[in-house]
Amino acid sequence: MPQAPRRIGVLTGGGDCPGLNAVIRAVTKSAIFDHGIEVFGIADGFLGLIEDRVRHLSADNVSNILTLGGTILGSSNRADPQRFAIGYDADGSPQFKDVTDDCMKTLRKYEIDTLAVIGGDGTMSGARNFVERGVNCIGLPKTIDNDLEGTDITFGFLTAVQIATDALDRLHTTASSHGRVMVVELMGRNAGWITLHAGVASGADVLLIPEIPYDLGSVRDFIKDRVARGKRCSIVCVSEGARAKGGKQVVARLDPTSPDPVRLGGIGAQLAGEIERVTNIETRATVLGHVVRGGTPVSADRVLGTQFGHHAVRLIAEGKRNRLVVMKDNRLTDVDITVAANTQRLVPADHHLIAAAKAVGTCFGD
Ligand code: F6P
C-alpha cells in the first residue's frame, strides 16, 4: 500500500506565465477537498526552500486567483540549489555553492514530503536533485514557449499566442495604412512555437523560427514579389531565437547566475534594418517581449491548469512518485519527471502546421 503524503509543498519556478495561479488553486483545493492533505506554498521557486520562506495555504488563500496573471507565490529563474550564487570573486565572476542541504532542512521543518513543482525544463532539472534525495516530486508543465519534452502542450502557451495574435492583427492595420513592412519579434527561446501559431492565426506573411535558419535574399524576394502583386504591406514575424543561415542567434544579455544564462533578443531591430536596406521599403520593428507573459490567462489555459493541478494531486494521493503531468494526443496522462529535465522540444521541420502555412503562401525564409 503506498503511503499517503503528509504535506505537499507547491512552488512555481522559472519565468512566469498566465495560468500559474489556476494551477496553484487546483492543487491546493483538490488536495484539501478531495484528500484532506495539507498544502504549503513555497515563495519564489526553489529560493523559498533555500531561505525558509514557506507558508500554509488554505482554500481561502487560493480563492479568487483563477483569472489572475503571474503567480501568488512568486518565481525565480536564478535559484538552482545545486549551483546557487552566493557572491562574486574579485574578478566579478559568481561563486556557487550546493545548498540542497538547506532545502532539505526546510522540507523537514514543515514535514513536507512531496513537492508539486510547477515549471519548465530548468525547474524539472532542479526537481531531479530532490528526487535523488528521496523527495517525491510531481511536475506540472509550465511555459509560454511550449518547449517542454513529454507533453504536447504547456499551460501559458495559448495565452501568449492569443496576445501575440492580437498584437499582429493591430500591426497589420497600421502597416497597411502606411505601406510598410512590420517586423515583430516574439519570445520562445530556441523554439518557434509561439511565432508559428500566432503567425498562422494572424496570417503573417513571413515566419522566421529558430528551427529553420533563414536566407535574407529569400525574404527580400518574397516581399518584393508581394509589392509587385499590389500588396500594400508585409508582416514579418520573427522568433527571438531565429538566425540567418550560417549566422548566430542575437543575445540581449548574459546572466551567469542563472542556470540558463543566455537571454535572447534584438533580432527584430537588426532584421528590420536589413530588410529596409535590401528592399528599399520603409520598415519598422516591434518587440512584444514580456507582454505575452503577462495578464489574464485565456479560458483554455485556465481549464488546462485546473486539469493539470487536479491530476497532479490524484497522482500524489495514489502514491505515484516522480511523475510529470502531461497532455499527450489530447489525453491527460503522466510520464517520468526526468523526461523533461534540461531538454527542449523544438518544432520539427516536417510539422503539419509549417506545411499548412506554406500551402497558404507563407514564407519561412528557407
Ligand atoms: O521561457 C520563457 C521566456 O519568456 C522566454 O521566451 C524568454 O526567452 C525568457 O523567458 C526571458 O527570460 P527573462 O524573464 O529572464 O527575461
Structural commentary:
It is a single chain. By secondary structure, this protein is α/β, with parallel strands linked by helices. The chain folds into 2 domains: 7-155 and 297-340, Rossmann fold; 158-294, Phosphofructokinase domain (Rossmann fold), CATH 3.40.50.460. Helices cover 35% and strands 20% of the residues. Strands 3-2-1-6-7 form a 5-stranded mixed β-sheet, sandwiched between helices. A 4-stranded parallel β-sheet has the order 9-10-8-13, with helices on both faces. It has a two-stranded antiparallel ribbon with strand order 4-5. Helix 7 (216-228) links the parallel strand 9 and strand 10. The protein binds 6-O-phosphono-beta-D-fructofuranose. 6-O-phosphono-beta-D-fructofuranose is lined by residues 15, 77, 143-145, 187-189, 240, 263-264, 293.
Quaternary organisation: single chain
Largest sheet: 5 strands, mixed
Which kinds of small molecule does this entry bind, naming each only once? 6-O-phosphono-beta-D-fructofuranose
CATH architecture heading of the largest domain: 3-Layer(aba) Sandwich
Strand order of the largest sheet: 3-2-1-6-7
User: Rounded to an integer, what's the Rg over CA atoms?
Assistant: 22 Å
* Integer count of domains: 2
CATH-defined topology of the largest domain: Rossmann fold
Q: Helix count?
A: 10
CATH top level class name of the largest domain: Alpha Beta
Judged by helices, strands and strand pairing, the structural class is alpha/beta
Low-confidence stretches: none
Q: Level of helix content?
A: 25-40%
